[in-house]
Amino acid sequence: EVVLTVTEHHSNLVPWQLLAENTGCKLRFIDIDDEGRLRTDHLDEYITEKTKLVCMGHVSNALGTIHSVRTIACAARAVGALVFVDGAQGAPHGPVNVETLDCDFYAYSPHKALGPLGIGVLWARRDLLEEMNPFLGGGEMIRNVSLERSTWAGVPYKFEAGTPSVADAVGLGASIDYLIELGMDNVRTHEKQIVSYAMERLAELPFIRFFGPRDPADRCGLVSFIDADIHPHDLGTVVDQHGVAIRSGHHCAKPLMHRLGVVATARASFYIYNDRSDVDKLIDSLLEARKVFGL
Questions:
Q1: GO MF annotations for this entry (predicted)?
Q2: Mean pLDDT over all residues of the chain?
Q3: Which residues pair with 102 in a beta bridge?
Q4: pLDDT at position 295, please?
Q5: Distance, CA of 214 to CA of 147 (rounded, Å)
Q6: Considering the chain, what percentage of its residues have pLDDT values greater than 90?
Q7: What three-state secondary structure class fits 110?
Q8: CATH at residue 275
Q9: Which candidate in 25, 55, 220, 252 is catalytic?
Q10: What distance in Å separates the CA atoms of residue 258 and residue 236, rounded to the nearest whole number?
Q11: Is residue 94 part of a domain?
Q12: Is 252 a catalytic residue?
């Protein structure tokens, strides 16, 4: 069995569905509480002796919830399962220590962290990488080739067949250098401050309902919400006309939307380049949207 959560981005759900179709393995899903935190009180109901792999997001891209990875990893260790963490929303927003998380694999998308498109990062335990077979064949990933067989280069080169995207790799390095210079602790502190202010301002609007933990310490720099009277897509269109960029929709997390009982949410995402004035502009644009719809 492979254990996931109901909060997963489609990119950490669909591949495992394909695996299940091809191998017959069973997928199980850890549920959430009313504030979008994973239910860790009964993990033995999900993670059992049948569990081979636990796959979970470090942070929910739709709720902002920072998940209790280590708690779940401990449950996985108890039954001998491996742990894969989707860090697309974790790595950009604060310090990451894979030893503290106690995971076996950690992946993230650089374009979520000031980097380029078209390249990804995977950290994994070296012993596991050495055991794994290449998933692509081609130049540069071989040690020796004959007509009968080939042998593979060492880690990580056996997983990097063909000509790499050099420009993307350079851009990735530049983005990492920039964030290290800023300090990931500073990034995290800034996000907590601005998301705390955003939640305070949104709470002033009686027609707004937001999702995820109420404690800013338990979320990254995003807030998902709905207006009681305006569809998120309409809301997004109007605030865009006022120079405010939010995302509206299911956020590539349709099962989570179903779990929340909504078809879509609006999501305001804050990062190192945002300040309190951006929050104020968001609030003003939400009030303007009410006027547009005669509310």
A1: cysteine desulfurase activity; pyridoxal phosphate binding
A2: 96
A3: none
A4: 84
A5: 62
A6: 97
A7: helix
A8: 3.90.1150.10
A9: 252
A10: 20
A11: no
A12: yes
